[in-house]
Each structure stands twice: as C-alpha cells, then as structure tokens.
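Appendix B, Record 12. Input sequence as logged:
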Amino acid sequence: MSLMILSLVGGAVAALSLAVSGEWQAGDPSQSLQLMAVQGARRIDACIRPACYFGSCRRGSANGSATQPAAILFWKNDNYPSLGKIQLAELAMIQHDPTTHTLMYYEAAFPAGMTSGQISIINQDISFSLFNSASAPDDFKLLPYVTGKPICHNISGARFFVSDVGSNTQRASLDYVLTFSRSMKVNGSDYNATQVQYGTATMRQPKDQPN
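Logged structural output:
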C-alpha cells in the first residue's frame, strides 16, 4: 500500500514538474530577451559614464537596415601623458555588427610584454579632426592593436544619437535604441521574440573638447 502511495505521489510530482517546465519554456524567449536588454543597457552605461568626450557617431537603424551600422567613437579616459590630447590607448568604440547580431566594443590592447618605450611609439596623439571625421569608425579599427569583443548578443538593429556634446551646462549623453531578436522552438513550434530597449547613457564628468 505504501509503495502504491509513493508511486502516485511521485507521478503527481513528475506531472507538476513537466507542467511548470512547459510554462517556463513558453515564456523563456521573451524573458531571456528582457534580461539581455537590461544587461546590454548596463554594459553601455559602464562604457559611457566614465568617458570624456564623444567623437564620430553613426546613427544606424533600429531595424538593422542602415548602410552604415550604428557606431560611437569616444575618448574613454585621459590617463596617458599629453593630458588634454587624445591618444590611441584612450580611444574606444561601440559598434553594431548586423551580420553577427552583436554589439562590439573596440579598443587598443597592447601586449603585456611591450615596454613603455615601445608603447609610446605606437600610442600617438590623435587629432580632434580625425576623431570626429565621418570615416573615423572604420579608420580606428585599422590602427595597430585595436581589437573588438562582443558586449551584447542577439541585436538585430541599433540606433545611436549623441546630445549636449561640448555643452557647458549639460553633460553629454548617448541616446540609443537596441532591437533584440531571437528565434527558437517553444513546445515544438517556431517562435520569434523581439525586445526593443530604449536608453540614455550620460557621461559623469565630460572634459572640454580635446586638442
């Protein structure tokens, strides 16, 4: 008798587990995209808040159809000599890659074995005109030791817009729209989930226009 009761209880628990699992799977695509959107906003904010100044900005498009994907080049810090001037190691860029559906972060990363003398030869000043030129996003990626890493995935579209750059009364900010998309099977059926994330990342202490 006790074995029969245990068997019935075990069956009920298993049935309940399957039901809960089914409900979780059914809600998982949109829930996972919401988590990605929150994570993406935090990562953009972490890049922009400590930055000093915005350079070239490509707007892109929220549906990923723009000829030039969204990109924002920025002066991330002023940590090297020649204060007030941009140097290679002080630059960074966030760019949407519509082919891989990722948001990429680019910066110059010098090998650990390089001496300060070797770094100083490569870590040259970047003029403001180059920093702010229309071709700057492409040119930056061609510079020595500039590499990229993904900071967000499943992004089918991105749109950037900068405001209050150089303002004496307002802190510069990056307004963005990110479209997260994901396709998967839910309970045996194809499911396409989309999450649009709107956000603003504001520099904490922007500097004056670099020389």
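The two ends are 87 Å apart (CA to CA).
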